[in-house]
Amino acid sequence: MQEIRQRIEDAELVLVGLGEAFQYDWGVLLRDDRYQEIEKEIGDDESRVWIVSFLQKMILRRGSEERWRRAYQTLHGLLKDKNYFVVSLCMDDYLYEAGLDEKRLVTPCGGFRRMQCDQNCAGELSAMPEDSYEAVLQYYRGERSIGELEEPRCEKCGGKLRFNQLGVKRYAEEGYLEQWNVYTKWLQGTVNKDFCMIELGAGMAYPGIIRFPFEKMAYYNRKAFLYRVHPQLYQLGEEIGGRGRGIARDPVDFLEKDL
Ligand SMILES: [Zn+2]
C-alpha cells in the first residue's frame, strides 16, 4: 500500500475511476422499518415508484454513510495536492461531498443533483421541486397518506420528472457532457507524462467508460501505471507490459482500511 501512495506522490497526473462496485448500497434506507412499510404500500404500482427515488434523495441529504465517508476522505487526502481527475459511475453523489474540486469530477451516469423530463423533451435539467420532496417527507413521517402525493411533472410537456440519471426513458446527457469535455482535454495532457491510474470497483457494467480506456492508456503510455482494485474482476492483461497491478479487494474497504 505504501507503493501506491508513493506512486501517486511521484506521478504528475492521477486519474481515479470509481466503478459500480463503489456505489452506495442504500443500506440505511433498506434497513429502515418505515421504508419497508412504504415499499409494501407501493407494491407493483408503477405510478408510485417515483416516491422511492425521493426517499433515496432524503437519505443522501442526511450525509454520507460512515464507511463511504472515510473512503472518500482517504481519496481526498491522496488527491488534494495533485493534478487529478475522477470519473465515477456512481449515482449516489457522494463524490460531490468529498471536498474535491468539482471541475475535476465527472459522473456520466448522473445522480440525484438535478432532475429532467423522462422524455428529455427540451434537453434541459431542472432543480428538484422542494414541495414534492417535502410532501414525500411528510408521507415518510406518517403525516400524509400515499394518496395525497402527486408525482412532479415536466413544466414543458407534462411528462414525468425524474432524477437525471441512467434508467430514465431518455437520459439527458446535458447533465455531464460539459465536464466530459473537460475530462477528455485533461486526458490529452497525460500523454508521455508520469501518470498513475486507479480503478476502484469498475466491473463490466459500463467497461467503455473506465476499464477499457484505462487499460488502453496503460498500454500506450510507457510512463503510466494502472492499479485495478475489484473484488472479482481485478485481472489485468499481459499486454500492458507490467505497467499495472490487480488487487482483489472490495474497493471501499481498500480505501477505508488499507490505504
Ligand atoms: Zn417534458
Give your account of this protein's structure.
The chain is of the alpha/beta class and 259 residues long. It has two domains: 1-24 and 64-108 and 176-259, TPP-binding domain (Rossmann fold); 26-63 and 112-170, no CATH class. Helix content is 35%, strand content 18%. It is built from nine helices and nine strands. The protein has helices at 2-10, 27-30, 33-42, 50-61, 66-79, 130-140, 177-188, 211-220, 251-258; strands at residues 13-18, 83-88, 105-106, 110-117, 125-126, 161-165, 195-200, 224-230, 244-248. The strands form two sheets. Strands 3-2-1-7-8-9 form a six-stranded parallel beta sheet, sandwiched between helices. The chain has a three-stranded antiparallel beta sheet with strand order 5-4-6, covered by helices on one side. The longest helix is centred in the N-terminal third of the chain and has 14 residues, at 66-79. The radius of gyration is 20 Å and the shape is elongated. The chain starts with a helix and ends with a helix. The model has no long low-confidence stretch (mean pLDDT 96). Zinc ion binds at residues 117, 119, 121, 154, 156-157, 159.
